[in-house]
């Protein structure tokens, strides 16, 4: 992924929160030539990923850093405890403090389609009502409200991000892990739909959002959603694993449409590309 170096892509300083996360690392690896990045990572990180990286918010705020843009990627995503003690601190308070510290910077927030809650109709559009069904989704909606107070801002509601280095515990990482054993378990008939965006495409969307001058809310989505059965078949074909069905799956399907919202695409990595890279990682 290379963004052309034009007057619009003049070198700038970007503050990236969650700089050591999967998306943060991908963004850092694909910055246009001449850009500089300041990273913020979770306190107590054993090995900072770069010299210009802070693991203490207070130290960052006391520094002389003056970012042109702030890319809010840090997020507490609960997988077991739905109400972790640091949910608000990471997902809301951090955003608030950075918005207050650099109100004139361009603020780009990686949000989530979880703010829509359970769908009543498909496809989902940006103008559909938000009905968060979890503390995590509520916290991301609160962060959206904070960022949208900035004069220059962009909010990207991402669907499911996938790629090498993703956290375990969700459907695709679980399939990748199971592939090593030679057998994949698919609950129900596999008809459930989900929309997957490769980390590399999500990083490109974030950088394109930084480069724009308008303020907007949009979706970070792939062209179409894929069924669980499709995903399992691709993993099985690549790995040689077999697929077995068990139980039922009552989870809702998700599909999205940009409508008139800003298009930060296209996605250049297919689901097949993403799954292959995860299997080879």
UniProtKB/TrEMBL annotation:
Residues 14-214 form the NAD-dependent epimerase/dehydratase domain. It comes from the Bacteria. InterPro entries: Epimerase_deHydtase (IPR001509), Lipid_A_modif_metabolic_enz (IPR050177), NAD(P)-bd_dom_sf (IPR036291). Gene3D superfamilies: NAD(P)-binding Rossmann-like Domain (3.40.50.720). PANTHER family: BIFUNCTIONAL POLYMYXIN RESISTANCE PROTEIN ARNA (PTHR43245). This is Nucleoside-diphosphate-sugar epimerase. It comes from Chiayiivirga flava. The lineage of its organism: Bacteria, Pseudomonadati, Pseudomonadota, Gammaproteobacteria, Lysobacterales.
